[in-house]
Amino acid sequence: MDTQQPVSDEVMQSLNRLEEFVLRYNEGRDTLTHIKAPGLHSLLVAYQYMKFVGQPGNYSLLHHSYHGDFFNKTYDILQKLGLTEENAPEVYSYIKYLQKLANSLVNVKDKADINIQLFGFLQGLTENLLYTRYVSNTQKEIPELVNRNIFKKLLVAADSFIAKDEKGNLVILAGYPWFDQSWGRDTFISLPGLMLVTLRHEEAKEIFRYYAKHQNEEGLIPNRIFLDGSAQYNTADGSLWFIESLYKYYQVTKDEKFISEMLPVVNKIIECYKKPYTKETVYMDKDNLIVVPSQWTWMDTKYTPRNGKPIEIQALFYNALKITAEFNRLAQDKDKAEELDELANKIKIAIHQKFFIDRDYPYDVIDGDIHSQATRPNAVFLLSLSHTGDLLYERNKKHILEIIERELLTPYGLRTLSPQDNKYIGKYDTFAPPETKDQAYHQGTIWPYLISHYIFAKIKLMKDRPYNEVITEVKNNINNLIYLLTTNNTLPEVFSGDAPHLPGGTVSQAWSIAAILEIFDLLNQHRELPSIDTKQLPDISVRQIRNLLGAG
Is 287 a domain residue? Predict the structure, then answer.
């Protein structure tokens, strides 16, 4: 183990305060983009974005390097963290060394090279800060050097999305640079990876409470919460992901007290979905399946309306019913639990009767969107969620995975539509007009966050296979994403469906990182990590932060 020690909570919490950096070029006359991210992440994300966008990003790097803006912003953030030249001399010594070197150079490209070294130093510093906290909390060390270095990068990427908003609310931001806000669906898909794998359990409870506080009268959890306290509720799955994420919290913590606190919220969600026809929101049809309005699923552009009864909403609701039944049993309400189990069984029957008529792969949506027979990845949720193990017959599960592997699986995630479909679009261009991007967004574009659900589903079917064979299967499906992570320190939102699968969308996306963290956790949970003795390592102040440096 390194001789590194945990940093005080005060410093760690300061890292989550939002900072803004405006990337400019053309002698400052033109704006490339606004980066708004927690603490030092504002600079790290700025560098990621400059690399991502090509020549305009290079112009911006040259402009800010010439004017010393990255160094000035670094000093400003360090001061806000409470790190001064007096109490963190080695931090300042190295930064000032780089700055002096940059100032001595005439060629602006040479100056930019030094600024890139600054970004590398800040990345390494943040990696060590966060990994030291993780080791202190777990008293466990990630053993292999390669895995440890990957995990450090995942910790930094995860931390970049966890922020305090302008009112002091802890939130999970969805992605950079243009999703730098909290979305309900993204939050609860991402929370298990970003906060549970990284052992930020108390902060996770803050997130649950924040969204629960904004539950509307019908029972829905918001899709977005604005600074003025208002909220949007136009999501059919955000509330159901809230329940799935809460169950994963319970799996890790066994915190029955918090589950008891959240149970009224969960029960209210279920009652919302059970109600009969209601205009412009979710409701339960006479066949016990859930009906949703247009553009209320995660495939939310006008080109994928998916109104009617989408398959993953049925899977999520079945899953939510089973979880809520379990939570009610914890609360000794057996009658309520039995009622929920009975409804879940009715939904199970309806799924088999309605979605698998003369088909090995279920309809993507029924009783609505006319593109109902599309082969999309949403069927994977029938297999991957925590309580869907008994939802399908084994033959159905195998057929679904076979088709996913044949038509949707790529080295970077799952395509959103089979290439055999005449609506398939194989290229996603981040810099195309919005209309063009929306057409491709869910019509073949690859989403890396889906890889974790594919792997969870695959492993369930490999339960009788040797452990090493399972691990090899997992690693083979994430090697390309891991390589990209090691080179860019993060993962993007999407990739083009056609080879060479160029990255696109946001340069850094929360649920992409969360997916890899959950997979990383899966790879490590079945082996005993070596313990370390941290009993003699008390919290240290910022005066001792120099002991954390290993990123020169």
Answer: yes
DSSP string, 40-102: THHHHHHHHHHHHT-HHHHHHHHHHHHHTHHHHHHHHHHHHTT--TTT-HHHHHHHHHHHHHH
Residues 329 and 393 in one domain: yes
**Pair 118, 173 in one domain:** no
Closest CA to 123 of 115, 135, 134: 115
* C-alpha span between 171 and 211 (Å, rounded): 9
The dihedral sign for the CA sequence 459, 461, 464, 466: negative
pLDDT in tens, 260-288: 999 999 999 999 999 998 888 999 999 99
Widest pairwise Cα distance in the chain: 77
For all residues of the chain together, what is the average pLDDT? 91
Residue span of the structural domain in which 51 resides: 9-141+534-548
pLDDT tens digits, one per residue of 170-185? 999 999 998 878 899 9
| Residue 13 pLDDT | 62
- The number of domains in the chain is 2
Identify residue 323 by its one-letter amino acid code.
I
- Same domain, residue pair 80 and 210: no
- Which pLDDT belongs to residue 14? 62
Same structural domain, 42 and 170: no
How far apart, in whole angstroms, are the C-alpha atoms of residue 400 and residue 329?
32
Task: Report the pLDDT value the prediction gives residue 470, as an integer from 0 to 100.
Answer: 81
How large is the C-alpha radius of gyration of the chain? 24
Residues 324 and 396 in one domain: yes
* Position 529 in a domain: no
- The closest alpha carbon to 116, from 57, 38, 161, 175, belongs to 57
Whether the predicted pLDDT of 226 surpasses 80: yes
Strands (E), 319-456: 365-366, 409-410, 413-415, 446-447
